[in-house]
Specification:
Rossmann fold, eight-stranded mixed sheet, alpha/beta, 15 helices, TF_GRAS, single chain
Length: about 425
Amino acid sequence: MNWDDDERIHLINLLNDCVRLTELGNFNDADIALYHLSQLASSDGDSMQRVATYFIEALAYCQVVKNLRGVPKVLHLVKTLSTPEQQLVKKLFFDFYPFIKIAHTITNQAIIEAMKGETSINVLDLSPSYNALQWTNLMKCLLKPNTPTCLKITITAIHEKKEVLEQMGLHLGVEAERLHFLISNSILFLENLDPEKLPIKKGEPLAISSVLQLHSLLATDDDNEMVKMRRGTGQRMFPEMLAKPKKKKVVNPSPDSALSPFSPCPSHKMESFLYGLWKLQPKVMVITEQESNVNNGSSLTKRVRSALKFYSTLFDCLEASTSRTSERRSLMEKMLLGEEIRNIVAGEGVERKERHEKLVTWIPRLELAGFRREPISSNGIRLATKLLQTYVPGYHIHQKNKCLFIYRHNVPLFSVSAWKF
């Protein structure tokens, strides 16, 4: 069934009413709204019905969280995906959408250009995958003419699951041998994100790649962080930064940031991590993040409104390119997009990892840590544009303030930005 605009608007209005009632604690009326929503939503319907399914599931979970603290903990344990399942649905996202491919393409091009003339390079990968496709593609690019034949690449990958890193190492080794590439690759099993402990020496040519990873470091104990920020307003966290005579920067904290206006970097973990990356003195760092604003404080209504715009567009993308009966599509929607929606809507504190923020919020954080923006190269834009042409119409790229935004029609979905020491 294809819905007309009036039916979609009715569903969205009913969803907004349910969110408002939930936020007010009027659970009886919110439950009635959920019942009516359940009659309209469908996990195998059109894109609006499908995305609504996961939002009402998240709202139902949210109501349970607010009323019964023990039950959601148990449900979370039951629904946790295994590592192979997590990697499978990430692979499906990679296949269905152009976003990760574009991120890898632009990142690799930026690395090639930044490392020109180097015979040995280091890559710090903050978002590795099983198949290491990004780095095998980089090898292929480096095999082109005028590339040093004794190039050594050391890849340091960080992931919480050891098996992901082991599998990535196997793929890299096999592909390097197949390509007859003179390469030394090192995959390190690091279970933390402390740059101080990384085996990278200051001054070595380093590139950093982060794809949809940094926002998870914004997860924090909101109440405790607010108290710390109020007590420490006006003081930076790092004595080294206070001791260095640096040019003052005017930072306008974004109202989108969870703990604004106290700091453009609401998470102590994020602030220290970015500064740690800066101290590694990378020649280039490329960051890809969701161009969405679901980390706007404690307002459930604003959070759901922003998330609905972002995810309904992602579901529309699949509606234009993939059959509704596709089992792979349904699996990815349920196990990846649906789980992200539930985390955004029902998660709080450290449990809410999906804290997407727009690039306008990331820029002052990165600049405060010491990074400078680098423009995305014309070659990178050309390659990304060519890649988008292989997908259904509606995707396009927009460049603004040296950064790149990937759109679906008039909705920006992801940003790609390059930075240097």
